[in-house]
Structures are given as C-alpha cells and as structure tokens.
Amino acid sequence: MLVSVVNPNTETVLEIGCGEVKGCQQEKHTAANARDLVRVGLLLKDMADHTEDMLGISNAVHLGFQVIGQTSTFYLMRKCGTMYIMTQVCKIAIPDCLDDMGRVFTDYKSWRRLEEAIKAGYEPILNALAKGQTGVRKNHFPTITTPELKKIKDK
Fold first, then answer.
1. C-alpha–C-alpha distance, residues 37 and 46, integer Å
2. Using one digit for the tens of pLDDT, what is the confidence trace for 79-132?
3. In the chain, where are the structural domains located?
4. Helices assigned H by DSSP within 56-146
5. Looking at CB atoms within 10 Å, which of 18, 123, 128, 142 has the fewest?
C-alpha cells in the first residue's frame, strides 16, 4: 500500500509512505512478517531518494507501517548523510468491537506522538510541493545488493 501526495498545479505525484497489511491468521508467520518489514524499509529508502531528486529535500521523513491482525506498528525513515535511519514510533492495538473502544483512548499518547512526528516530517515536503520547488537528480547508493534482498523487494 502506498501513500501519495499530489500537487494539483503541477500534477506532481510523490510517494510519502508505504506499508504492509496482513490478517490475523498471519500473526505466527514471523519470517514472512520480517520480510514484509524489510520490504517496507527498502521502499522507504527509495522514497527518500526520490524525494531528494524531485524536491531537493534530503532530510524529509517518510512514514512506514505494518499491520498484522489488530496491531499497527508505525515507522519513520529519514536520511542522515549517506545513512538511512528507520525508527519505530509506536505500536497500537486496533479494537475489534465497541466494547474494546477504550483501548483507543489508552493509546492516545501514541497517536499524538505519531501525529506530531508526521506533521514535522512532512512539512518540508508539502512546502516544497506548494512552491513548485524542484531538485537535481543525484547518484544514490544502490538499494539492492544481494539476490535475497532483490527477491524480497520484488515479491
């Protein structure tokens, strides 16, 4: 799943987030879930490179998420020099019925922290798109260096 933003004036489309979603029956498949998380990280790295190429913003933050059953885990990735840092922001349980809606309020601080991180991270991207700012294509380090990682990404 990709999250995109579109500038209606220039029709520029920019991916700013991505994620993987699996049902409850997949909770025990840890190897497959780990591969999904690696794929999210690889896509976020490519998004960071693309944002730098299109807008010239090298410190933009991109949102990644992994939903397995009723648990959503959110990640942010930022480029720092030639390194890409991906951090887990929060893990939130999704209620399955009205009786469990109280969990949403229990996780309020996590939702608030996620909102603040996203707002601060996306602000440079949204401002650059509004101004019609463009970047210069750069040579980035290759993302895929082994056949195993290529299989994970292309799955």
1. 14
2. 888 888 999 988 888 777 777 766 666 677 777 888 888 788 778 877 887 777
3. 2-147
4. 102-106, 108-131
5. 142
